[in-house]
Amino acid sequence: MVRTVFGNFYILVITCYYVLLVFTLHAKEQMVARGVSKQQVLDCIRRGSKVKQTDGLLASYGYIQIAYKVRGEMCVVKTVMIR
């Protein structure tokens, strides 16, 4: 696994394919306020159960919920919540 951070962009290489995670400012603020790491966000998106919403998806894994949109090979993380 290779990680690279460019400002708001977080690029993660996982088993021969690229996942570009883009965090909105709101999502970054919520992550800091709630003590959630980027790895926990990635685990939630990869392993969590997903529910379709009006504009994107809601992933739940453990005690974390992530609202995000998929745009091609990019995931835009909109917000991070604690259950």
Report on the structure:
This protein is α+β, with helices and mostly antiparallel strands and 83 residues long. It has one domain (23-82). It is built from 2 helices and 7 strands; from the N terminus they run E-E-E-H-H-E-E-E-E. It has a 7-stranded mixed β-sheet. A hairpin with a 2-residue loop joins strand 4 (49-53) and strand 5.
Task: Quote the distance from N terminus to C terminus.
Answer: 28 Å
Q: What value does the Rg take, in angstroms?
A: 12 Å
**Biggest sheet, open or closed, and with what strands and sense?**
7 strands, mixed
Order of helices and strands: EEEHHEEEE
Write down the overall geometry: globular
Compute the number of helices: 2
Q: Could you estimate the helical fraction of the residues in percent? A: 10-25%
Indicate the mean pLDDT: 82
Q: What is the domain total for the residues?
A: 1
Number of strands: 7
Poorly predicted runs are 13-17
Structural class: alpha+beta
Instruction: Enumerate the strands of the largest sheet in spatial order, edge to edge or round the barrel.
Output: 1-2-3-7-6-5-4
| Strand content bin | over 45%
